[in-house]
Specification:
By secondary structure, this protein is an alpha+beta fold. The protein has helices spanning 3-15, 21-24, 70-89, 97-104, 114-129, 139-144, 157-164, 196-210, 306-319, 321-327, 356-359, and strands at residues 47-54, 57-64, 110-111, 172-175, 180-183, 216-220, 224-228, 240-245, 253-259, 262-268, 273-276, 279-282, 285-286, 291-292, 298-303, 335-341, 348-353, 361-362. Its cofactor is Mg(2+); Mn(2+).
């Protein structure tokens, strides 16, 4: 057998699940993913981990290492789908569908791919429900603050006013009958950064479920997580145990939750910010004011879909406690954790809304 034949045979064996237990042990979740590893030495506790760089982060699929090899093939196919979706959704690719709409949809209504059209409808509905705190037209504002190029800067008054004149999802006209979108004026643009990763995870779930995979966890950059079925690690716990990141200490967790057939999204700006004249400016912007949001340190949302969890995490971060509590009257099945600065330096306070008080097990150092 040639070296090339050996390589292909090795890949086929891997995809069919022919992994020796010693090798499988190397695929268990690493702490930064947020997965619990407490039972990693229990019989059947090993995980298969598949990874792919996409959408400026690491996407990962976790599968229980007890199923048929076809599950691994389905996981690879799900990651292939993420790559395809990046080409459609990215604001950083001039030939993506999102950017092409920005270049033409102000001239005349443009037909939109059916699934993307559904996502845009959801985004516009969220814009209305959050009174503008969630807004996929905030691209010009992101650019004015330098976050698009990852070089933060404080914009001048004229630049900020110019950007704000283009903001507002009410400038988008969606025609459900013809599946088209029309922009109110030139230079209006779409940026799906606050919902795109979650949408990609939802599409991964569809693909994996259609392939007959019942139990899996997928995440995009650890801030967007979707769990289906159960973690078969020899315990009786229901679902998958996922860590909620601490907004100030990346090596710690605020606590853990168990997810089953649902998703979690976290928004925060502690580690994506810049300083100017001694003041810190975070990258999560309030589209209503044009300024960085400062109400909380982080917002974590549990919802039925990853797109909804991601979008609401951003909105709740922008809105803060009072507006978030009012929003939940429209989303009674959503749970929210808001983390604020504590009274002591370096300390934090938690605000649990919905049924988050029943879902979240706080870490001892967070209580």
């Amino acid at each position: 057998m040639t070296s090339e034949e050996e390589r292909l045979a090795s890949r086929r064996n891997f995809l069919r699940g022919k992994i020796h237990s010693e090798e499988a042990a190397k695929t268990e979740a690493v702490p930064k993913t947020g997965l619990s590893s407490a039972a990693s030495t229990a019989p059947g506790a090993y995980l298969i981990q598949l990874t792919r760089k996409a959408m400026a982060c690491q996407f990962e699929v976790y599968l229980n290492a007890v199923g048929p090899g076809t599950e691994t093939e389905a996981g690879v196919a799900a990651l292939d789908l993420v790559t395809e979706l990046e080409q459609q959704l990215s604001a950083y690719r001039y030939d993506s569908e999102i950017c092409m709409l920005g270049a033409t949809a102000y001239l005349r209504p443009q037909v939109v791919e059916s699934r993307l059209f559904e996502l845009l409808e959801l985004a516009v509905q969220l814009y209305r429900d959050t009174n503008g705190a969630f807004d996929i037209t905030a691209g010009p504002l992101i650019k004015a603050w330098g976050f698009f190029d990852r070089e933060g800067k404080v914009p001048g008054e004229a630049d900020l006013a110019s950007a704000m004149s283009l903001i507002g999802s009410n400038r988008l006209t969606l025609d459900e009958t013809h599946r088209t979108i029309l922009f109110e004026k030139e230079e209006v643009e779409l940026n799906l950064g606050s919902i795109g990763k979650g949408y990609a995870l939802d599409r991964c779930r569809e693909q994996l479920c259609e392939a007959g995979v019942a139990d899996f966890l997928v995440h995009g950059g650890t801030s967007s997580v979707l769990a289906q079925g159960v973690r078969r690690d020899g315990t009786q716990r229901d679902g998958w145990e996922v860590g909620v990141p601490h907004p100030l200490r990346p090596d710690r967790r605020i606590g853990t939750v168990h997810l089953k057939d649902e998703a979690l999204g976290t928004s925060g700006a502690a580690f994506q910010a810049f300083f100017h004249e001694g003041k810190k400016y975070g990258h999560v912007l309030d589209p209503r004011t044009g300024q960085p949001a400062t109400s909380v340190l982080s917002a974590t949302v549990i919802a039925s879909s990853a797109a909804l969890a991601d979008a609401l995490a951003t909105a709740c971060y922008v809105m803060g406690p009072e507006e978030t509590e009012a929003l939940l009257t429209k989303y009674p099945d959503v749970s929210v954790l808001l983390v604020k600065e504590g009274r002591r330096r370096g300390g934090v306070e938690t605000i649990l809304l919905g049924d988050m008080d029943q879902r979240l097990a706080l870490a001892p150092t967070s209580q």
